[in-house]
Specification:
13 helices; binds flavin mononucleotide; alpha/beta; globular; about 15% strand
Length: about 375
């Protein structure tokens, strides 16, 4: 029976346990997207806390795909030196790290990038997004940009990369008929909507070789009227498996999905409320063999153990619990089985949006209220 604390290997990358830090924008890069010592210390702390695999915050592959302030970039050669320091900091603490590669598409704020906002199709949202449709040349350039960014990750010593194709960012917009209204080879049928992602994977393999771990994060569904469905997800997962993806992380939702955003707020009340995408993972269990990483609302060791024991997940990913307690995995491994102290109140976004870097506001408050805590 699989054990959470056993060592496993993904395409040559050996991991100490089955816990993953899900990609988390730290808002700790410099204004120009290069890595800072603050960011290196932050990820080193996670590695010291015994997280088996760290997935970095999303790094933009081209300037118009930037999503937020103090976000890390992987879009040019000048980023490599800082990325190398980040990878080295994690390795020195005994951890493994993959770089999440992303393009924000319609979600890129024009006031930050100073560039056209682009997506699969022209798009206007009630929240004020105005995007134009990408040309065929822009699609080809973006596919190449993912490949080149992956090569930079490898040069910098990252253990692998993860393609961000979830949460309503560019690749997820191509997957979703809600955003993608194209009538060329990149829109319409599922095969056409999947095309950009499979070409991104091919481009990454071309630039990094077959022996480099390439993971992907996809939505189990969009929770948008006429959007990407669970059936689409299953078909995509099978195609990704055929194309040689090394692991799939299953998330869900977009910023426009109301209460079903990827960062649902509110503390899960009981074990059965944990693991937001359990049903989707059940559908994957017998349909795909490629390692599956589950993320979203997992808060207790019991639930994590059951997901792995029931073969719903090969790996358990956490984001907010590790902002709250970077040493949570070490604590659990040492036998303190109390659940995560994270309340999923999303207050961690506030300092990040002010450009101060993420931290758990609630935990910081607890510490000031309980001196000596
Ligand atoms: C502050 C913050 C930043 C995030 N940044 C990213 C990101 O860069 N890439 C990504 O795929 N998901 C990102 N997420 C989503 C998480 O990876 C994860 O999917 C989500 O928080 C649900 O997991 P959790 O319930 O364990 O927090 C972010 C979440 C938070 C709270």
């Amino acid at each position: 029976m699989p054990d959470l604390f056993e060592s496993t290997t993904i395409n040559g990358m050996t991991l100490e346990n089955r816990f993953v830090r899900s990609a988390t924008w730290e808002a700790m890069a410099a204004e120009d997207g290069t890595v800072t010592p603050e960011l290196c210390n932050f990820v080193a702390q996670l590695a010291a806390g015994s997280v088996g695999l760290i997935i970095s915050g999303h790094a933009y592959v081209s300037p118009e795909g930037r999503a937020g302030i103090r976000q890390m970039g992987a879009d040019r050669k000048a980023c490599i030196a800082g990325l190398a320091e980040m990878a080295a900091a994690v390795h020195a603490a005994g951890g493994k790290i993959v770089l999440q590669l992303a393009h924000a598409g319609c979600q890129a704020p024009a006031e930050l990038t100073g560039l056209d906002v682009i997506g699969p199709s022209a798009f206007q949202s009630p929240t004020g997004i105005t995007a134009r449709a990408m040309t065929a040349d822009e699609i080809a350039d973006t596919i190449e940009a993912f490949g080149k960014a992956a090569r930079r990750a490898r040069e910098a010593g990252f253990d692998g990369v993860q393609i961000h194709a979830a949460h309503g960012y560019l690749l997820s917009q191509f997957l979703s008929p809600f955003f993608n209204k194209r009538d060329d080879d990149f829109g319409g049928s599922p095969d056409n909507r999947f095309r950009i992602i499979l070409e991104v994977l091919e481009s990454i393999r071309h630039h990094t070789g077959p022996d480099y771990p390439v993971l992907i994060k996809i939505n189990s569904e969009d929770f948008l009227e006429g959007g990407f469905s669970q059936d689409d997800m299953l078909a995509l997962a099978k195609r990704l498996q055929m194309s040689g993806i090394d692991a799939i992380e299953l998330s869900g939702g977009t910023g426009l999905s109301g209460k079903y955003t990827p960062v649902r707020s509110g503390d899960p009340k009981s074990a059965k409320d944990e693991a937001f995408y359990r049903r989707a993972a059940e559908r994957c269990r017998d349909a795909i063999e490629v390692p599956l990483i589950m993320v979203g609302g997992i808060r207790s060791l019991e639930v994590a153990e059951a997901l792995v024991k029931d073969r719903l997940a090969d790996y358990i990913a956490l984001s907010r619990p590790l902002i709250c307690e970077p040493d949570l995995i070490r604590r659990w491994r040492a036998g303190d089985r109390r659940r995560s102290r994270c309340l999923s109140d999303n207050l961690c976004f506030k300092p990040a949006l002010r450009g101060e870097g993420i931290y758990c506001v609630t935990e910081a408050l607890r510490k000031t209220e309980t001196p000596g805590h």
